[in-house]
Amino acid sequence: MRQIVLDTETTGLNPRSGDRIIEIGCVEMVNRRLTGNNLHFYINPERDSEEGALAVHGLTTEFLSDKPKFAKVCAELLDYLSGAEIIIHNAPFDIGFLDAEFSRLGVPPFQEHVAGVIDTLVQAKSMYPGKRNSLDALCDRYGISNAHRVLHGALLDAELLAEVYLAMTRGQNSLTIDLQVEETTQHGDDGLIGAALAEVLVLRAREDELEAHELVMNSLDKEVRGACIWRSLTAN
Predict the structure, then answer these.
(1) Are strands 85-88 and 39-42 parallel, antiparallel or unpaired?
(2) Is-contact 44 32, C-beta < 8 A?
(3) Do 7 and 154 form a contact (C-beta atoms < 8 A)?
(4) Considering 40, 57, 152, 187, which one is annotated as catalytic?
(5) Model-level pTM?
(6) pLDDT confidence of 180, banded at 50, 70, 90?
(7) Is 175 exposed, middle or buried (0-12, 13-18, 19+ CB in 10 A)?
(8) CA–CA distance from 171 to each of 106, 168, 174, 216 (Å)?
(9) How far apart are CA 6 and CA 159, in angstroms?
(10) Which of 99, 101, 94 is nearest to 119 (CA)?
(11) CA 76, CA 226: separation in Å to the nearest integer?
(12) 160 in Cβ contact with 136 (< 8 Å)
């Protein structure tokens, strides 16, 4: 399963009034593992950022003046996103801006290029109704450090959101082992019913399974800001 965590920075809040994308950050996950195959662009929006937006992202017109325009990066972006499931915090905002950029170039809408979209803001509101569910709030809730986040940045925010998403969706998988037992039962002296057990099968974990387990343990350590209880149990 290939998933892309995506974030954008923009000149303002409304693409319909001419605001443009100035930064795109994408983080790739395959089977819930970060691959390091990320994508990042600064983009020349051909206009100034609104004062409020500039205070959020700090990307000045001067800094962006020599960066490529969206038309130059569009094909590479679509090739990277093609067929993946996309994870976005407050998806309508980012998709609205991307669709506006695609429309200028005569490119089909965002949803036609990807396998689907997961909105982590919708998920968070469902899990924590009535609570703050901004990216910063979720980082605090899951013990994910964002101390280095002075200003918003698309790639940095995508990296944080990837960690948040993995924490939000980490569930305890139920393991069911069906063992055939003899139908005949016998009563012990204490009146309890005993059943014959089948041969116990021991399956050793593969190397890739051990690596996946270690990643989960590291995430648990990060959440408790120390060594989780499973570390102490396995050490004994």
Answers:
(1) unpaired
(2) no
(3) yes
(4) 152
(5) 0.71
(6) very low
(7) exposed
(8) 42, 8, 9, 11
(9) 9
(10) 94
(11) 41
(12) no
**Residue 155 φ/ψ, nearest 5 degrees:** -70, -45
Is pLDDT at 175 greater than 60 in this prediction?
no
130: left (phi over 0), alpha (psi -120 to 50) or beta: left
DSSP string, 120-184: HHHHHHHHSTTS--SHHHHHHHTT---TT-SS--HHHHHHHHHHHHHHHT-------------S-
- Quick count: other Cβ atoms within 10 Å of Cβ 133? 21
Reported as a single tens digit per residue, the pLDDT across 86-113 is 999 999 999 999 999 999 999 999 999 9
Please tell me whether residue 219 adopts helix, strand or coil conformation: helix
Q: How far apart are CA 60 and CA 58, in angstroms?
A: 6
Instruction: Find the angle CA(75)-CA(1)-CA(87) to the nearest 5 degrees.
Output: 60
Q: What is the DSSP string of 33-95?
A: EE-S--EEEE---SSPPPHHHHHHH---HHHHTTSPPHHHHHHHHHHHHTT-EEEETTHHHHH
Helix, strand or coil, per DSSP, at residue 31: coil
Show the tokens assigned to 137.
């709030």
Active site residue 57: no
* Strand 2-10 versus strand 85-88 pairing type: parallel
In this structure, what token pair is assigned to residue 120? 């982590």
